What we know:
Layout: H1 8-20, H2 23-27, H3 32-43, E1 54-59, H4 61-67, H5 74-87, E2 91-94, H6 106-119, E3 122-129, E4 138-140, H7 144-147, E5 152-155, E6 168-175, E7 180-181, H8 183-188, E8 210-217, E9 229-231, H9 232-236, H10 242-245, E10 249-254, E11 262-265, E12 268-274, H11 275-287, H12 297-314, H13 320-342, H14 349-375, H15 385-402, E13 406-413, H16 416-423, H17 425-441, E14 449-454, E15 457-463, H18 467-482, E16 485-489, E17 492-495, E18 498-505, H19 513-529, E19 534-538, E20 542-544
Parallel strand pairs: 1-9, 1-10, 2-3, 2-10, 3-5, 18-19
Antiparallel strand pairs: 3-4, 6-7, 6-8, 11-12, 13-15, 13-18, 14-15, 16-17, 19-20
Helix pairs in contact: 1-12, 5-6, 12-13, 12-14, 13-14, 16-17
Amino acid sequence: MRPLTLSWPRRIVLSVLVGALVVAPSHWQWFWQQDEAVYDAYVGGWDYRPDPRLLIVAIDDNSLQQIGQWPWPRSTHARLLDRLTDAGSTRVVLDLMLSEPDRQDAAQDADLAAAIRRNGHVVLPVLAAPASGPRMAEELLPIPLIAANAATLGHSDIDVDADGIARGLYLTAGIGSPHWPALGLALADVRGPLPGLRDTAPAQSSPYQWRRNHYVRVRYAGPPERFPQVSYVDVLNGEVDPALLRGRLVLVGTTASGIAPRLLTPTTRERWMSGSEYQANVASMLLDDKVIQLPPTLWQDLLSGLLVALCCLGLTLPRAAASALLALPVTLLLSFVLLRAGNLWFAPAAALTGMLAVIAAWVLWRISAWHRQANSDALTGLGNRLRFEQVLQQEHDAGRRSGRPLSLVLIDVDHFKHHNDLHGHHVGDTVLRRIAEEIGAHARRPRDMAARFGGDEFALILPDTAAEGAVQVVDDLLARTRAMEVAVGHGQTLQITLTVGIYTRVPATASEPRHFFEGADAALYKAKAAGRDGYAVDEGEPDLR
């Protein structure tokens, strides 16, 4: 299989243009579902040991049964915080909705605020209320009395993809500007520049919109229930060993059915993950430096285009089939290695789709080339014997149906063997190519067909052509051939002449294509007998010229 016969500059330009076509689907994420399917397959079983400092204090079904109907008095949460303070917990996220004051007993708010102040390391959530009708988006903060005593606040905005899977997270978010850290980030309390894709929205955008920044993919420690968990009521009642709470990063949140947010993750589609465990996964990946980042959109687009361009370039080289077979798995392997070795997610679907399109176009081109090669002469590019016989049969049948004449012209190069032996095969091949060009140029109409069916033997099939029309074509062909000169070296040129036989009939019911061939062949021999460099016509009556 020969490579595409293009010069190197043209190969490179073609490859660059094809690669550029992939930028749009990559940039606009046309194949995001396929990308996420690959991503889920890569990270689904990619577990790691979570940070041992993290602990979930779960408001579970058992706690609801023993303490009573939800929501509980805020003094109950104050007592829990005191337990954690006394045990020496390092930091506590109290993932509870505290944006409204207790309307029945204001002392409840004071009790909770005092417990938060005594602890000194409590993180409280900021909830995002989306815009609805005329109502603008807003931040739901804890009431001022409680918020003033917290160590910090963190947003609890969970990013869920269109297919319902929670894969990513914005490390910062807020109304007007992304000023709140994510709850898991606030729990981890890591320092230094934040990772993740930056917000590209202009700074002067609406101050009333919920803005997000520093997008990352969550590296989950494993499926749900991966983190150590104790029941809220057990901690409240002092049934948990204080040593288990000492030095811990504690996340207090709901896991009970009916009140806890439920999330699907790439780790499993069979079990739900609570919002508390989601935040614990965020904290763990930040503490252990396992954040999965995305390349900037421009780099994602350029890499996708480059891979497709290289695939296209490979298909113009020898062993193109190997390039096609390797391009797809290499792209998937590259995405896998970048993720597993570099914690960098390259979405491969746009590149893979582009490669499939390029490979499909190449396969169609090869099939077309094989078809042309099967029906054309390798030296001259004219139709070969097989194609000649197919077209003669088709035009014979068409002429029989239409009642229109069909002319067959057989052509021999005069003294070709002598020229070939005297001047060499390279001169002989040049003669055949030059003659083929002239004969092909005289097959002017769409259904006319020029062929080389052996050695120095050529043919013209001229449908809907009477003998007079065929003679005009042959006269012009002979004149142009006589004017042709072929260089043979040392300043010498070779004069070429042709001998032609013409056979014209309206195909009858009893006739067959071989009758046309035999008739044209008989006319050719008449022309040879008459001295060559001329033609003879058989159109029903002997007509030697």
